[in-house]
Amino acid sequence: MQYSVSPNNIQLKSSFEVKKKDFARELAAIRALYPECQVWKRSFKSLSREWAAHNAFHALGIFGKRTADTDLNWPQKWYFRLGYAIAGALVWPFIK
Questions:
Q1: What are the residues facing 6 on neighbouring strands?
Q2: How far is it, in rounded angstroms, from Cα 90 to Cα 36?
Q3: How far apart are CA 62 and CA 84, in angstroms?
Q4: What CA–CA distance (Å, rounded) separates 82 from 25?
Q5: Going by DSSP bridges, is the β-strand pair 70-73/3-6 parallel, antiparallel, or unpaired?
Q6: Is residue 48 classed exposed, middle or buried when 0-12, 13-18 and 19+ CB atoms within 10 A define those classes?
Q7: How many C-beta neighbours within 10 Å does residue 50 have?
Q8: Residue 33: its pLDDT value, please?
Q9: d(CA 76, CA 90)
Q10: What is the largest CA-CA distance in the chain?
Q11: Residue 15: Cβ-neighbour burial (10 angstroms; 0-12, 13-18, 19+)
Q12: Could you report the per-residue pLDDT of 62-85, keeping only the tens digit for each?
């Protein structure tokens, strides 16, 4: 998996290609290399729900170019946090 890391952001390139069963493994590998990144203030569940929402939207053709990659940020505005929590939980059973 290709990604870029900055102090407050991790951009997962072509994240739609990664299956949900591999989210935690990929995140753990990135965290091992970049433990100082502020994104780790979020839980793996929060990060995985956002990733799941992006994958679902991409599969449905919604904002295709924007949802092909996933940007995980810290801090996150409350409405994004709420939106990804709801959307990610709803789509989780249906994505690969």
A1: 9
A2: 31
A3: 15
A4: 24
A5: unpaired
A6: buried
A7: 25
A8: 98
A9: 20
A10: 34
A11: buried
A12: 988 889 999 999 999 999 999 999
Tokens 């591999």 appear where? Answer: 22
> What is the chain's mean pLDDT, rounded?
96
Give backbone dihedrals phi and psi of 36, rounded to 5 degrees, phi first.
-80, -10
Query: What are the tokens at 81?
Result: 């946090």
* Whether the Cβ atoms of residue 38 and residue 5 lie closer than 8 Å to each other: no
Contact between residue 96 and residue 18 where contact means Cβ atoms under 8 Å apart: no
Cα separation of 41 and 43, whole Å?
A: 7
- The helix (run of H) or strand (run of E) holding residue 88 is helix 78-91
Distance CA 92, CA 44 (A): 14
Return the number of other C-beta atoms located less than 10 Å from residue 61's C-beta: 8
- The residue to which tokens 């990733």 are assigned: 51
Ranges of the chain whose pLDDT falls below 50: none
Tokens of 94: 């249906």
